[in-house]
Design goal:
354 residues, 10-stranded mixed beta sheet, 12 helices, alpha/beta
Length: 354
């Protein structure tokens, strides 16, 4: 019997192989996503889930990751293999060669290969069908400076526009997926309907708010939401080398901040308990018709979070698309999900480490 869930997938380059492992384990244990959102490499993973040919999610993720994993170069040490993607990744990106035009460059690479990879590996008719899986990706608009979510569905009571957040129901194409991962200065901005977009992780690397717009009212209090956290930062030693400094800076930039703003000293548990109480005391009053109150009630879904966190990323791990690097992150994600599912949790909010 399939168990419904929702998924939130972060960005993190090659660290996304951890998400590949987590989702594979969840699916094998009978969990099935009703809604999924992602950003950057998480958008590619999310698209591979919603657009899985024949509905085979594990096979779809495996095929995408096989396509973007670099072949092993014989006799080259493993630590050198990890950096090969800096020279390009034929099914993902290629370095620019139009050196005569270098003064006009706004990126070092082209993402045209990923557009072709997505088009050939995924079923975009299925991906655009919300009756199959509700799906959304986020990107950062260079026009507004805020986050735009492109999705195949807009739930009843969804919020489509605030000061810096917009939600657009659209027919999704490979360009929408690539826009979510257009991280400068390596990758160029992706233009959609006349607006240029950069990587969604520049605004928020944990797109829970975009997922909330995909949930119908009857799911808010009950649907489990699995969040894969690629950048845990608690309890880390002070960096001792320049490479460790760079790795930590990236982790701090892209760590999850979504629920740190809720609840004050009471933390997230106290915040959702307050929302449940508020729903009870305001039942039948005029406040129920206020859009701000409706969004506040939508945040009750946060009590259903299940966070599966990776161990801290190795130095340079975000660009390690070598066979060994991808295999290690996949296996770590698979094991973390199995450990989580094997644990008897007295409460839904729990963090598991690989």
């Amino acid at each position: 019997m399939k168990k419904p869930m929702a998924l939130v997938l972060q960005g993190g380059g090659a660290l996304g192989a951890f998400e590949y492992g987590v989702v594979t384990a969840l699916v094998e244990e009978g969990w099935y996503p009703k809604a999924v959102t992602g950003v950057s490499i998480g958008a590619i993973n999310a698209a591979s889930i919603a657009g899985a040919k024949g509905g085979d999610i594990a096979a779809s993720l495996r095929n995408i990751w096989q396509a973007i994993t670099l072949p092993t170069v014989p006799f080259l040490p493993a630590d050198k293999q990890a950096n090969l993607s800096l020279l390009g990744n034929p099914n993902f990106w290629l370095s620019r060669t139009d050196y005569w035009n270098v003064l006009n460059w706004t990126s070092f690479c082209t993402t045209a290969p990923m557009l072709a990879t997505l088009a050939s590996h995924l079923d975009f008719d299925q991906l655009n069908n919300p009756d199959h899986i509700r799906f959304g990706v986020t990107a950062t608009s260079l026009h507004t400076g805020g986050q735009t979510t492109f999705s195949n569905h807009m739930a009843q009571g969804a919020h489509t526009h605030t000061c810096h957040l917009q939600a657009v129901r659209a027919k999704l194409t490979p360009s929408h997926i690539v826009a979510s991962g257009s991280l400068p200065p390596g990758f160029p901005a992706t233009r959609i309907d006349g607006t240029d977009y950069w990587d969604g992780g520049l605004f928020s690397n944990t797109p829970i708010d975009s997922l909330l717009n995909l949930l119908e009212p009857d799911e808010i209090g009950t649907l489990p939401i699995f969040v894969v956290d690629l950048f845990p930062t608690n309890g880390q030693p002070t960096p001792a080398t320049m490479q460790e400094v760079q790795t930590r800076a990236i982790a701090l930039q892209y760590q999850n901040r979504f629920w740190d703003q809720f609840g004050g000293d009471a933390k997230l548990d106290g915040f959702v308990a307050m929302l449940d109480k508020l729903e009870t005391v305001t039942a039948g009053t005029a406040v129920e018709g206020m859009p701000a109150f409706a969004w506040l009630m939508r945040l009750r879904a946060l009590k259903n979070l299940h966070v599966i966190a990776a161990t801290p990323a190795p130095a340079g791990g975000d660009h390690d698309f070598s066979q060994q690097g991808v295999a290690n992150r996949y296996e770590a994600g698979y094991a973390a999900a199995q450990q989580y599912l094997a644990r008897t949790a007295p409460r839904p909010l729990l963090r598991s480490a690989a």
